[in-house]
Write a structure and sequence with these properties.
The chain has 366 residues and is mainly beta. Helix content is 5%, strand content 33%. The radius of gyration is 26 Å and the shape is elongated.
């Protein structure tokens, strides 16, 4: 739990102790400007699927008072997994008040649920007076505070993914309730105009999966194609490239020595996610993908050929774009790669097409 850091007395009986207490508070306050507003977390990288712990030494401002913990706090996820399951997870601090002595107040850390389709439904509005995302009871008394963090629980991906720290710039206008909005793009070239009342957006993007091979061992047919690349372009400059998935390759001297296509690689700006390699005849499933953008699986190789090979998956990226990066422009160009076509022989031993990539832009707006 988080215990209150007591402030120095207004009329101290011991000046030296009062100065020491003031120095402790000042040192703790510096931590409020660190990445997680004073909270230290583990298990917060892109590949770690574990639920984070709050680490000893963390501090938190609550109603203008400072609280701290000197022990690790293990969080427990008790959000039910029903048919209408809440897929988002938030960390909230619940205050336990002592009616007789407010210096004995403490905070308890809990996990709360929400829906990725409408973040605002599970997340409180920003309280500018108290400088935080607070929930109040029917008597307008604050009972809990949400940290500016979110993560998504996905059993298919092995746990907690899309761990995100929300940009406070998205919540800086008093009296305005902001809601999460998304725009989705399919394969092709697109332009997105940066909204006038938005400070930052996040682009999730995947590339196309490679096509599957026709049945090798027959007379030569039409080769499969690699998945199309996806790109983010600002001011006519490519800042992020997600290469499409590869096709099967010959690896030995034998007539049937082929291996599955390689996964695409991502480069440039943002959180970069490489694709998955195909194993044998099966097209690669893009299991590395932790973005909001779907697609990018490789196409299966022909199941009726003497031997064949699946296509590799595309790659992906998550890029945060601020208004300042546009340099006065308003348009962002998004290129989404299509899936590679499968290899063709005679209609009976054709490979399957790779999946198209996609892009999702998310932002907070009233």
């Amino acid at each position: 739990m988080f215990k209150l850091i007591k402030e120095a007395e207004e009329n101290p009986s011991n000046l030296l102790d009062s100065y020491r207490q003031q120095n402790i508070i000042m040192q703790k306050m510096r931590m409020l400007h660190t990445a997680f507003d004073g909270i230290k977390l583990n298990h917060w990288n892109d590949t770690d699927r574990e639920l984070p712990d709050i680490l000893a030494g963390s501090i938190c401002e609550f109603e203008g008072r400072l609280f701290a913990t000197n022990e690790n706090i293990k969080l427990h996820d008790s959000v039910p997994l029903g048919a209408d399951k809440e897929d988002l997870r938030f960390i909230k601090l619940v205050i336990v008040r002592d009616a007789d002595n407010k210096d004995n107040d403490y905070l308890r850390a809990e996990i709360a649920g929400g829906y990725s389709s409408t973040v605002s439904d599970g997340f409180p509005s920003y309280d500018y007076e108290n400088r935080g995302f607070y929930v109040k009871d029917e008597n307008n008394i604050i009972k809990e505070k949400y940290l500016r963090l979110s993560m998504k629980y996905d059993a298919n991906l092995g746990g907690y993914v899309e761990k995100k720290y929300w940009n406070i710039n998205d919540f800086q206008r008093k009296g305005v309730t902001l809601k999460r909005k998304t725009v989705t793009f399919e394969a092709g070239e697109h332009e997105f105009n940066f909204p006038d009342d938005v400070n930052s957006i996040t682009i999730h993007i995947t590339s196309g999966g490679g096509g599957g091979y026709y049945g090798i061992g027959f007379n030569a047919g039409t080769l499969p194609k690699e998945g199309g690349d996806s790109q983010i372009i600002l001011n006519n400059e490519i800042i992020t490239t997600c290469k499409g998935g590869g096709i099967g390759k010959k690896i030995g001297s034998g007539a049937f020595d082929y291996t599955g296509g390689k996964g695409g690689t991502a480069s440039g700006y943002g959180k970069l996610i490489n694709g998955n390699d195909a194993l044998g005849i099966s097209g690669a499933v893009f299991s590395n993908n932790t973005t909001l953008a779907s697609g990018g699986n490789g196409g299966n190789g022909s199941s009726t050929g003497v031997t064949s090979a699946g296509g590799g998956s595309g790659s992906a990226a998550i890029a945060d774009i601020t208004r300042g990066m546009l340099k006065g422009s308003s348009a962002i160009k998004i290129v989404v790669g299509a899936g590679g076509t499968g290899g063709l022989y005679n209609g009976k031993t054709d490979g399957e097409n790779g999946q198209d990539g996609s892009a999702v832009i998310e932002y907070m707006q009233k």
